[in-house]
Amino acid sequence: MNSRLKDLLGRGLRLTRLELVPVRVRSGVAAGARWTLYPWTSYWRGTHERAMQAAMMGLGGGDIRSWSCWDLGAHYGLYSVGLARRVGPGGQVAAFEPNPLSFARLSRHARMNGLTWLKAFNGAVSDEAGTGELFTYGDLGSTVTHLPYDGEVRQAGSGVLEVRTYRLDDLVGAGEIRPPRFVKVDVEGHGHHALAGMKATLGAHRPILIVGFHSPQEEDGILGLLEPLRYERREIEPGTGTTGSLIGRDLMFVPV
After folding, report:
1. Which residues contact 11 (CB under 8 A, 6 or more apart)?
2. Is residue 102 part of a domain?
3. Is the peptide bond before 228 cis (omega within 30 degrees of 0)?
4. Do 186 and 73 touch, CB atoms closer than 8 A?
5. What is the pLDDT of residues 198-234, one digit of tens each?
6. Cα separation values, 199 from 3, 129, 169, 213, 217, Å
7. Is residue 20 situated within a structural domain?
8. Is 12 within a domain?
9. How would DSSP label each residue in 107-174?
10. What is the pTM of this model?
11. Contact 193, 126 (CB under 8 A)
12. Which domain holds residue 119?
């Protein structure tokens, strides 16, 4: 399908609200969950990031009942919903998504599945609590809206939204979320700031991490934070090797 036809289809679905027609996730970490038809149909068709989904399904030997999990950069909530269904009501999932459009769909998916133990936060994770700027290249329907990369200057044609920022150590200290046993980090170049804001929790609880890398600064910052905590890194995609740049790759970090 060419991009013009795809855009027209998307507009039609939004105008008629057909994009919200409920479907079931066919396979993967959220298999069986109730979902919405459009967009990002790869989420419910089960074809999105298959290796990542398989890695999450293998957590705890396949049994993560009562775990606490964090999803940093939750988008529409595929992983948040999948993890919440797996941890059950004795567990907790904390999902963070600064994009208001994505957050609205994340919240809808949580409600559709009755996941009252999924706590969704409309904000970004960082090393300081307060507010930040969300750069919106394209439109809010994009998956690459983000807080500025280190040194990034907003370009002409980009919008900007003021969003709330959370420091995760603060939320744990206040009892708003449980310390995690697993954390997924995919925050478009801001991961080192997110981990810096949960440094005390990392040191005390040493959760399993899956991290997506997007910039040299993010890579250097995250590896520097994790090195003294004795984490072993494992490839998500088999055969990608363990040397060279990590940008564009997802890795699992397991405490040893």
Report:
1. none
2. yes
3. no
4. yes
5. 999 999 999 999 999 999 999 999 999 999 999 999 9
6. 43, 14, 7, 18, 17
7. no
8. no
9. HHHHHHTT-TTEEEESSEE-SSSEEEEEEESS-TTSS--BSPPTT--PPTT-EEEEEEEE-HHHHHHT
10. 0.92
11. yes
12. 49-255
